[in-house]
Amino acid sequence: MELLKQRIQSEGLALTEHVLKVDSFLNHQVDPKLMEAMGEEFARYFKDHHITKVFTIESSGIAPTVMTALKLGIPMVTLKKQASKILNQEVYQTEVRSFTKDLRYLLTLSKNYITPEDNILIIDDFLAMGEAALGAARLAEEAGAKVAGIGIVIEKSFQPGREKLEEAGYEVYSLARIQKLGKGIIEFLT
Ligand code: 5GP
């Protein structure tokens, strides 16, 4: 998505060779027009995948995901990050390891918002090691639902996330794919 790549190039900050900061339009301040354009692009790409719900992980995935759900005319569900296990029968939970933040959390989904008939699109802001997206897919599948695809705003293609998701059988569509990060360097895959 050309517009997104331009914004990453002009406003993105490579904190290290592995971490990109895009606080001015996605992770802190949010540009609603850009979010709408992302929603249109995800909806265009996944329109024939018979999606029934769009899942994301709190919190930076919410803005592009709500726009996608709006364009597809279906609900979105935000998977919550809990610090400790919830001991009741009303939720599905799975542990996710964040390498970027060096912590673990329990991704949590209420049983009220998924059925075995659901065909889920998972959207997240970044793809790095693939652990967050795999955790979201585990929850959907534990409920007996299908995962129809994974939409990523910014994929860091030099990390193994896409490979892991594709190996697990998921279709991945990323709006921007970065092949290299470094001091003053942000390079995209064509
Ligand atoms: P993964 O589970 O694929 O390793 O990481 C995905 C999650 O980590 C995303 O939801 C995002 O919150 C965070 N993340 C990973 N890499 C980056 C990055 O370079 N910049 C930012 N802002 N977040 C990242």
Can you give a write-up of this model?
The protein is an alpha/beta fold and 190 residues long. The chain has six helices and ten strands. The protein has helices spanning 2-11, 23-27, 32-46, 62-72, 131-142, 161-167; strands spanning 13-14, 20-21, 53-57, 76-82, 91-98, 103-110, 119-127, 146-156, 172-182, 185-188. The strands form two sheets. The protein has an eight-stranded mixed beta sheet with strand order 5-6-4-3-7-8-9-10, sandwiched between helices. It has a two-stranded antiparallel ribbon with strand order 1-2. Helix 4 (62-72) links the parallel strand 3 (53-57) and strand 4 (76-82). Helix 3 packs across helix 4. Residues 19-21, 27, 57, 60, 98-100, 124-132, 161 line the site of guanosine-5'-monophosphate.
Specify Rg, calculated over alpha carbons. 16 Å
Bound molecules: guanosine-5'-monophosphate
Number of strands: 10
The assigned structural class equals alpha/beta
- What does the main sheet amount to? 8 strands, mixed
Q: Number of helical runs?
A: 6
Q: How widely separated are the two ends?
A: 11 Å
What is the H/E string?
Answer: HEEHHEHEEEEHEHEE
* Fraction in beta strands: 35-45%
In the sheet with the most strands, the strands line up as 5-6-4-3-7-8-9-10
Query: What integer is the average pLDDT?
Result: 96
Report the uncertain regions. Answer: none
So what's the overall shape?
Answer: globular
Helix content: 25-40%
